[in-house]
Specification:
Oligomer: single chain
Helix content: 40-55%
Strand order of the largest sheet: 7-6-15-14-13
Distance between the termini: 116 Å
Shape: elongated
Strand content: 5-15%
Number of strands: 15
Largest sheet: 5 strands, antiparallel
Length: 676
């Protein structure tokens, strides 16, 4: 009996000391937690200072009509609160992320325990996957538990934010006092305000106002239940569920959110059914995602401290035309779908300008639904081939030749110091003998271009090409005439605009006005480069005539438009690594390039083939509803022009036989239409 009482007394003592030990541990933990709460509480700023946490600013790009077509940087639409956003959006966020938000004190032990159980059940670590975090804890992560980003540090802001989102046991422990400190310092609505404005929602949009504007073209105060559900659905994985990436997937995710809202009493059965049956769709600007290449080019052309590295919110008005961009993209898609073998890695670039150099559209590659990609229209330096010949003929016309001057297509050999004898050949391998200058240009005869260059002087050809903006570095040898220098599609197309402009150079431009958001006065106005006369107006008009003949009866017949007079030039480089067609009407100038990024030769493609067809398809769409206008060209009569490029004398000029039955046959056959 006495032994039993001793055992009982000993047991009670163990229990008592265990209780004392545990209670003291709890007390110590409570004191440590209270100290941590006090520490974090003392360092928390006023909530108004936490709504915009960006380091970088944003750039909003407007088209020629003042409509938004692209965004860059970190977009922030302005501070919103639970009281001024749509009630559906507030409810969708609560239902999705933290249904007990207004009842807990910053952390939810039940939620954390449930998340750990789910993670372990699914074979992950306890803190991998579901976090069980309350909205308050998520805000704590957004604030990186009070650690501020150092712009001068060793890691980027992206890496810093990624590390802040990483969940570890130690960080989870730190979240508790930080979240409690926030609950003491701020009201629930203030915490929710920080969350609404700092959370990242994809496509560069920070906060719900920016995301609502980005995806739906409306304020977060105006979204309906379906739109609110789609926005709330982005919280779990903004890139994966981005509606601009996969609208159907975003709509399916939104449907799940709608069900949560219905289950928690935020939506009636009929309202939930309406939201499911009429899911959110993107605004026209967001759906088109047009002008990515154009936007990147404009961002590169402006000062970096106001574009790529801006810390301000900037508005840029541009020359972009979404209708023309769509026409160019549709033309590329049509030709590649119907005339290019499936799986081809061939690339394409398209540029469309107004005659004054205002760039209206840029297709920098076949992937037109992205930004930040390599822009083949503005960045790729390629050899223009025969598309360079207009500068050769411009020099010849300036020197006194005329469209009907007689020239001789014959073998030519030139001794190149250090390389030996150089003997260029025509694409067909044949020589036509005595022909007119117009015929030589229309058929893209290589021998004549070389002989003209040697006659007028390579320096003069370089001067004209450079004056029109087609590069500044040219080879010293006779191959200059055949376009072995390098140029971008944008630069070469701009050069052709100078020809259309009567011989006055044109500098392509896209930026019309740059101003800070909220300011009326622009910081930068339209910048137009020096417009100098390169050749005489008469020469330019004669050159337009030669280029018109190329389209009507030469290598460019497959580019011919139905009712709009046009002019242009084909170009195919050695080994067919590049194929070009550049031309214009009285209203627009357009250039098309095709090739492989790794310089693999094209098979069966020349400038007069697929590039000319893409040009025709694009320009046909661009000119819909535009009345035809005559080209500014001189139609020369017999007697205009002078000597031939040959030892034999030239007789009086005669007009080429492009009329009557012979002309009809020649046009029908195309006279080698896609051969050069």
């Amino acid at each position: 009996m006495r032994l039993g009482r001793a055992a009982a007394s000993s047991g009670k003592a163990v229990i008592r000391w265990t209780f004392i030990f545990i209670s003291r541990i709890v007390l110590v933990c409570a004191l440590i937690t209270a100290g941590a709460v006090f520490y974090f509480h003392s360092g928390l700023p006023e909530p108004v200072h936490l709504t915009d946490g960006r380091i970088r600013g944003s750039v909003t790009l407007l088209d020629r009509n003042g409509e938004v077509f692209a965004w860059r940087g970190e977009q922030f639409g302005g501070a919103v609160t639970p009281n001024n956003v749509a009630k559906h959006l507030r409810n969708a966020v609560i239902a999705t992320e933290d249904k007990r938000f207004y009842r807990h004190f910053g952390i939810s032990p039940r939620g954390i325990a449930s998340a750990i159980f789910i993670n372990l059940r699914e074979g992950r670590g306890p803190f991998q996957g579901h976090g069980g975090s309350t909205i308050t804890q998520q805000v704590a992560k957004l604030l990186c538990l009070g650690v501020k980003f150092d712009p001068n540090g060793e890691i980027s802001k992206t890496e810093f934010e990624k590390d802040c989102r990483r969940t570890t046991l130690w960080r989870k422990i730190k979240e508790v006092p930080f979240a409690v400190a926030m609950e003491i310092k701020y009201t629930k609505d203030e915490i929710l305000t920080v969350y609404f404005n700092r959370v990242y929602l994809g496509a560069g949009a920070q906060g719900f106002e920016a995301a609502s504007q980005r995806y739906f073209g409306k304020s977060a105060a105006s979204v309906n239940a379906a739109e609110a559900a789609m926005l709330a659905g982005l919280l779990v994985a903004p890139s994966h569920y981005s509606p601009t990436r996969d609208l159907s997937r975003a709509q399916r995710r939104a449907s799940v959110i709608v069900s949560l809202m219905e289950d928690q009493g935020y939506l009636s059965a009929s309202d939930a059914a309406e939201a499911r049956n009429r899911p959110a769709v993107l605004s026209e600007a967001a759906a088109n995602r047009a002008g990515g290449y154009f936007a990147d080019w404009v961002m590169e052309s402006g000062p970096s401290f106001l574009t790529r590295s801006t810390t301000e919110d900037v508005i840029i008005r541009t020359t972009f035309d979404s209708r023309i961009q769509k026409a160019a993209e549709e033309a590329v898609d049509l030709v590649f779908e119907t005339k290019v073998r499936e799986g081809s890695r061939a690339q394409v670039a398209v540029v469309v300008l107004s005659p004054d150099g205002a760039v209206r559209a840029i297709v920098g590659g076949r992937n037109s639904q992205a930004d930040g990609l390599f822009n083949r229209a503005t960045q790729a330096l390629r050899q223009p081939g025969s598309a360079f010949k207009p500068f050769v003929y411009a020099a010849a016309l300036e020197a006194g030749f005329g469209p009907f001057s007689r020239v001789v297509d014959e073998p030519v050999s030139i001794n190149v110091p250090g390389s030996g004898l150089w003997s260029p050949k025509n694409y067909t391998g044949k020589f036509l003998g005595e022909i007119t200058l117009a015929d030589a240009f229309a058929q893209s005869i290589n021998s004549v271009a070389v002989k003209l260059t040697e006659r007028v002087g390579r320096g003069r050809v370089k001067e004209i090409a450079s004056g029109f903006g087609s590069g500044s570095s040219f080879p010293a040898g006779p191959a200059l005439a055949l376009g072995v220098s390098e140029s971008t599609l944008l630069g070469l197309t701009g050069s052709y605009a100078g020809i259309l402009n009567g011989g006055i150079s044109v500098s392509p431009y896209g930026l019309v006005e740059l101003r800070l958001k909220g300011d009326e006065k622009p910081l930068i106005g339209q910048v137009i480069g020096n417009r100098a006369r390169v050749v005489s107006k008469k020469t330019a008009q004669q050159l337009v005539y030669l280029m018109h003949q190329t389209v009507e009866r030469g290598t460019g017949t497959r580019s011919r438009l139905e009712i709009h007079p046009s002019a242009g030039k084909t170009g195919t480089t050695q080994s067919a690594k590049d194929a070009w067609f550049i031309g214009f009407t009285a209203d627009y100038v357009a250039g098309v390039w095709m090739g492989y990024d790794d310089n693999t030769p094209l098979r069966g493609v020349t400038g007069g083939g697929l590039p000319a067809e893409i040009w025709r398809e694009a320009m046909s769409r661009i000119h819909e509803g535009i009345p035809p206008r005559a080209l500014p060209m001189a139609r020369p009569g017999p007697g205009s022009g002078s000597s031939a490029v040959a030892e034999k004398s030239a007789g009086p000029e005669t007009a080429p036989e492009d009329g009557g039955l012979l002309g009809a046959i020649r046009r029908l056959l195309g006279e080698g239409g896609d051969n050069r």
